[in-house]
Design brief:
Elements (H helix, E strand, L loop, with lengths): L14 E5 L8 H7 L10 H5 L11 H11 L5 H25 L6 E4 L22 H10 L5 E2 L9 E2 L1
Parallel strand pairs: 1-2
Antiparallel strand pairs: 3-4
Helix pairs in contact: 3-4, 4-5
InterPro entries: EBDG/EBM, GH
GO molecular function: hydrolase activity, hydrolyzing O-glycosyl compounds
């Protein structure tokens, strides 16, 4: 392996060992278990507490912005959560499609992470309550060996990759 860069600690190319689009918002059933009734809205103190820790992961603002720009402003929490499932599906599916499209130069990818050890709004294919997220279904469909997809990067629209 020759992709490690000693100038940038932890940097390695060609194999991504911990990555994901972070779009793994749980379904309503899980959110209702996770948050108290008076905190049952996007951006509440309890909501942000379950978004992670530190400066980068203390809210879902990036996901909120992506939902609004791609699908329009959600009407309510239910609409937000359903739309987040679609965004999670598309994001995780695209991550694996990009890897497959760039194989063999891109030799591997490990999506972070499979499941969450506590009720969380990020980093999970299925949540603490074992409910799958949109990310789970996007990963499942794209990593299935029989799935085809169109490479929009090629001029020949009949070219498919497996």
């Amino acid at each position: 392996y020759t992709g490690y860069d000693e100038e940038r600690e932890g940097y390695a190319e060609r194999f991504n060992t911990e990555t994901c689009p972070d779009v793994c918002i749980p379904i309503m059933e899980s959110i209702e278990k996770m948050l108290p009734g008076d905190q049952l809205y996007v951006g509440s103190e309890a909501w942000n507490h379950h978004a992670g820790v530190g400066v980068q992961f203390n809210n879902t603002e990036k996901v909120d912005k992506a939902i609004s720009k791609r699908y329009g402003q959600p009407k309510d929490l239910s609409d937000y959560l359903k739309t987040a499932q679609v965004l999670g599906y598309e994001s995780w599916r695209a991550m694996y499609e990009a890897h497959n499209r760039n194989f063999p130069k891109a030799t591997g990818i490990i999506g972070w992470m499979h499941n969450s050890p506590w009720p969380s709004l990020i980093w999970q294919l299925y949540d603490y309550y074992l409910n799958p997220t949109g990310a789970f279904f996007g990963t499942r469909i794209r990593t299935h060996p029989s799935q085809k997809y169109l490479s929009h990067l090629l001029r020949d629209s009949n070219q498919y990759f497996f």
